[in-house]
Amino acid sequence: MHVSPRVLVLLFATLGICPLILVVTLPKVYNGEEMGRLSTRSEVARLNQPAEAQRTSLLSRAAGRRYRRFLVAAAITLCTTALLLSLVAFIRWRGQQALQQDTSTVVAQLSEQLVRSLQSRRGTLTFLRDTVNRRSDLTLQQLRAMGASAVEHTRHLIGIGLIRADQATVWWKDPESLGASERAELSQALTQRTQRRGIWRVPSTYLVIPRSNRALLVMMEPIQAPTMRTSAIVGVFDLKPLVEDFFTSGVSQHWPVQLLSPEGVLYTSDDWEPLTTDHRPIIVQSPLAIDSARWTLQMQPGHTRVTQTLSWFNVLLVALSILAGVGVIIIVWILAARTWILQRAVTRRTAALRRTSERLRQMAITDDLTGLYNRRFFLDRWEWECERARRYQRPLACLMIDVNGFKQVNDRLGHAAGDLVLKQIARELKTLLRQSDILARFGGDEFIIALPETDLEQAKAVADKLRHVEIPVQEGEGRNDSTISLSVGLGRADHDQDQPEQILEAADQALYAQKRQLKALSARSA
Question: With the C-alpha atoms ordered 280, 281, 286, 292, is the resulting torsion angle positive or negative?
């Protein structure tokens, strides 16, 4: 229940003015009763004296013992009213501050989560970019096959292709859901974008809104291959269902939200309360930055314990204002209790947000399937380990691991069996490594290990041990169980020259060299 501040002011003002009315009217009533009791003309003449003399007599009588109690009651009531109004104003302000701080924490975390969710879509483009960098001789048919697979396996990706300087976009997978006019406006926006300086150096993300008001999120990944310097892989996402899917399924607390861009409103939830003349809900906002795209996420406070405490306390204040003349002390104690209740509500809410933040942080750095660290956490930690090794001249190595024959397991036994194999590999690797080693799932059937304080000989020993690992695969009833092995590539930190990316690239190249060697051996044996 929401009580308007105007109602509270009216109640408290009435409570303070009533004793004053009594102070003014009671002397007049007393004077009329006194005139009926007077019998002598001298006393009547005294009462009929001039008005100024009567006012002086009224003040003298008001200062007497008979009316002093009413003055004291009026003063106490006015002071109580002022105190109650001050407390109400302070508590409402404190509640608004607590509510805004509560919502600000949530909207800041939600903004970071939304940025991570949008940037995770770039992984598909990054994978295709790395593939083209390594294999720039791929045919158009092969590129289209990769584009179709990327669109099929990436949610809300409607089109992907290759764009070159001063050339039209070559779509590997056409954005079929777009109309002819929308595709024309998209192509024009892409052509204009390629004319900007520095567009071929770093990845970029921007927004394209055709005349149909269908927001399209465009991501570009420049290709670094020598033969394709001024070209990039471009992916087009349907932004509205992408954002709607994030807010409806990826957020545990569904509060009213609205996503804005300089061009206009991108998304508004169904429970968003619009601003009106009579109703102005609290709005807390947080900026979002994804490359060159600049957005604003707005949120309205939901029905938390803080708002419930504020609403119920307003009802309590109305009831106490009626009995304020009888129980001033009770009102003061209830106000103090209300502050205590609000503080407890804020404390509980802060603790809940802290637990939620810790859970989100753990989810952000952990792979869901294997329970290992994910790629993002490993890359951040790897840079830190390389910097530490370079500063203190300590040995550091990296192992890149790939599962041999994993695709055949998925093809023969299904993805459920493949997931079970990945879990077994994760458990096996945990048992073979030290607690100081950093093990993560790098993507698909690839794992990566950072080995701090490990020289080249020790790293080779660990790699040889991992190459001899055999993971059993249950083929089913009537079949003999098979085993799969691991391919391991080694990269070693050179404190003088190598960068973190170069060490990972060296480990990746060593891994592919071993896999080619294994394929050659298997071909000879066949």
Answer: negative
**CA 422 and chain centroid, separation:** 30
Other beta carbons within 10 angstroms of residue 13's beta carbon come to: 13
pLDDT > 60? residue 330: no
Which of these ranges, 97-111, 314-328, 438-452, 498-512, has the smallest mean pLDDT?
314-328
Distances in Å between the Cα of 424 and the Cα atoms of 402, 415, 484, 486, 489 are 14, 14, 11, 12, 20
Alpha helices in 121-254 (DSSP H): 122-134, 140-153, 180-193, 239-249
Distance between CA atoms of 25 and 48, rounded to whole angstroms?
19
Q: Are 282 and 96 in contact (CB under 8 A)?
A: yes
Instruction: Note the pLDDT of residue 397.
Output: 93
3 state DSSP class of 177: coil
Decide: 398 and 452 in contact? Cβ < 8 Å. Answer: no
Dist CA 505 CA 490 (whole Å): 10
Residue 409 contacts residue 484 (beta carbons within 8 Å): yes
Chain centroid to CA 475: how far? 43
Distances (CA, A) of 292 to 102, 340, 488: 29, 46, 39
Residue 87's φ and ψ, nearest 5 degrees, are -65, -40
Mean pLDDT of the chain: 77
Nearest to 418 by CA among 405, 428, 429, 427: 405
Is 321 in contact with 11 (CB distance < 8 Å)? yes
- Looking at residue 78, what is its pLDDT? 67
Strands (E), 300-384: none
Give the tokens for residue 525. Answer: 């044996």
For 16, 136, 381, 414, 478, the CA distances from 475, given in Å and listed in that order, are 87, 38, 38, 11, 8
DSSP-derived pairing of the beta strands 486-492 and 396-403: antiparallel
pTM of the model: 0.43
Contact between 439 and 449 under an 8 Å Cβ cutoff? The reply is: yes
Tens-place pLDDT, residues 263-288: 788 888 877 888 776 667 778 888 88
Region of 138 on the Ramachandran plot (φ > 0 left; ψ -120 to 50 alpha; else beta): beta
Amino acid at site 305: R
Cα 346 to Cα 237: distance, rounded to the nearest angstrom = 40
| CA distance to 105, 322, 492, 515, per residue, from 508 (Å) | 40, 78, 12, 11
Contacts of 63 (CB under 8 A, 6+ apart): none
pLDDT per residue as tens digits for the range 98-114: 666 777 777 888 888 88
